[in-house]
Design goal:
Length: 157
């Protein structure tokens, strides 16, 4: 009997109930692999950051000015769990959605999907929690999530 992993089971929610996902597409390069040819695990975390940055570029570009003025998006925690390996020239979609927003903290989830060779396959999942802070003379101070970011995140909840 084949082993069935949780990520292989159909989702209980209908497509209408499922959260929208921001998608960052990435083609794996040789430099992201080891001598055996599979992707270094650290790259999955790098892709989370890249996905988050592209999301900000596309949905809250005004934050760049605020970051120049001391706004900080501080990564408080990050994680990933892996189901299958990726290799050079695999195409992966990193799909991000809002897990929750509480006070000055935002938690997002990521699904890593191998695409382009048949049906998409979930190869990993990740999470990240971000604290919204303002740099000042006394260090970092928690501040509310900026409206542009809050509005953009609601599209993906």
């Amino acid at each position: 009997m084949p082993l069935t992993l949780e990520h292989d089971r159909p989702a209980a929610a209908t497509a209408a109930e499922a959260p929208r996902e921001y998608v960052y597409a990435h083609d794996v390069c040789f430099r992201e692999t080891n001598v055996v040819g599979n992707v270094y695990f650290a790259n999955f975390l790098e892709w989370q950051g890249r996905c988050r940055e592209m999301f900000l570029r596309d949905h809250a570009p005004d934050l760049l000015r605020r970051i120049e003025d001391g706004l900080r998006l501080v990564t408080l925690s990050v994680g990933a769990e892996f189901f299958e390996e990726l290799h050079a020239f695999d195409r992966v979609e990193v799909r991000m959605s809002l897990a929750h927003r509480r006070g000055n903290r935002v938690a997002v989830r990521f699904g890593y999907w191998r695409v382009g060779d048949g049906a998409p396959r979930l190869v990993a999942r990740g999470t990240q929690e971000i604290g919204i802070m303002q740099a000042g003379t006394g260090g970092l101070t928690p501040v509310p999530v900026p409206d542009s970011l809050a509005d953009a995140l609601e599209l993906y909840s």
